[in-house]
């Protein structure tokens, strides 16, 4: 995601220690592993996603130019990773684009991360705990570089594109809100309400999230057109599945039941991280 590198407490040393790693949840040797060859994605799907991203980036660029010209603050820059340990939801169409550019080593790191996500999904007692564990135990996205920058920025998911902070990046980090006392939380709420660009509840710039809706719509359309179904879920799980020939062959046939069975064979099925419609 985007973020203000200068404001990230803990700095690059924290990222080097934690990116793509986090606290171990389950030995990967206990789970089925993906093997080559990887799937060759449908070019029409990739083109549709790239086109939707390009249109969003153009619209977002215009908004940010006007927003900052009118005095709005954007605390986002390359090298921040304060929000890069959040759960990320995306479409299988987007995941296919990411999978299409990963090196074998990157794909292995993504799969390792996906299996931590799965274990968290299966053991977290509720959504709040799922998010908390994801940030603290599953850890940072394995596609971050040692300098805190995204190494696959050009194909990052929609949610990574539309998340911008109107506050310094420390407010994006896990534990900041939880560590505030009642007085500090009231001050935060008051500042959010009077900060241009927010929705009055959180410090993120709301119009940029609203502007990304056409990307989701286009992804849904192309999946329906090419596959006869939609698949949504966790970034790292779907990116791993998008590289599976058996899983994607079932998807391209429009056979959601067969696709679920293939995901189950790989140990990558759970309703929290894989959903068909």
* Uncertain stretches of 5 or more adjacent residues: 1-14, 16-31
Number of helices: 12
Largest sheet, strands/sense/barrel: 3 strands, antiparallel
Q: Averaged pLDDT, please?
A: 87
**Termini separation:** 27 Å
Strand composition percent: under 5%
Counting DSSP E segments of at least 2 residues, the number of strands comes to 3
Helix content: 40-55%
With strands numbered from the N-terminus, the spatial order across the biggest sheet is 1-2-3
Radius of gyration: 19 Å
Structurally, how many domains make up the residues? 1
Q: List the secondary-structure elements in sequence, H or E.
A: HHEHHHHHHHEHHHE
List the quaternary state of the chains: single chain
Shape: globular
Class computed from helices, strands and strand pairing: mainly alpha
Describe the structure.
- The protein is mostly helical and 277 residues long.
- It has one domain.
- 50% of the residues lie in helices and 4% in strands.
- It contains twelve helices and three strands; from the N terminus they run ααβαααααααβαααβ.
- It has a three-stranded antiparallel sheet.
- Helix 2 runs antiparallel to helix 9, helix 3 packs across helix 10 and helix 11 runs antiparallel to helix 12.
- The N terminus is likely disordered.
């Amino acid at each position: 995601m985007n973020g203000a590198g200068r404001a990230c407490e803990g700095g690059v040393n924290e990222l080097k220690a934690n990116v793509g790693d986090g606290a171990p949840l389950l030995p990967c040797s206990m789970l089925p592993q993906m093997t080559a060859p990887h799937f060759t994605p449908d070019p029409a799907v990739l083109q549709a996603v790239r086109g939707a991203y390009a249109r969003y980036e153009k619209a977002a660029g215009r908004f940010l130019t006007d927003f900052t010209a009118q005095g709005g603050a954007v605390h986002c820059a390359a090298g921040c990773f304060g929000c890069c340990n959040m759960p990320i939801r995306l479409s299988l169409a987007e995941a296919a684009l990411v999978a299409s550019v990963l090196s074998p080593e990157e794909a292995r790191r993504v799969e390792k991360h996906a299996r931590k996500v799965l274990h968290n999904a299966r053991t977290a007692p509720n959504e709040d705990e799922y998010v908390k564990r994801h940030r603290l135990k599953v850890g940072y996205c394995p596609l971050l570089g040692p300098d805190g920058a995204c190494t696959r920025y050009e194909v990052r998911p929609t949610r990574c594109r539309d998340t911008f902070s109107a506050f310094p990046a420390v407010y994006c980090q896990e534990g900041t809100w939880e560590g505030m006392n009642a007085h500090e939380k009231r001050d935060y709420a008051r500042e959010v309400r009077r900060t241009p660009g927010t929705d009055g509840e959180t410090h993120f710039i709301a119009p940029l999230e609203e502007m990304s809706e056409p990307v989701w719509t286009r992804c849904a359309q192309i999946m329906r057109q090419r596959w006869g179904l939609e698949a949504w879920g966790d970034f790292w799980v779907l990116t791993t599945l998008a590289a599976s020939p058996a899983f994607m062959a079932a998807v391209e046939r429009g056979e959601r039941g067969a696709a679920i069975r293939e995901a189950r064979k790989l140990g990558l099925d759970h309703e929290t991280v894989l959903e068909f419609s």
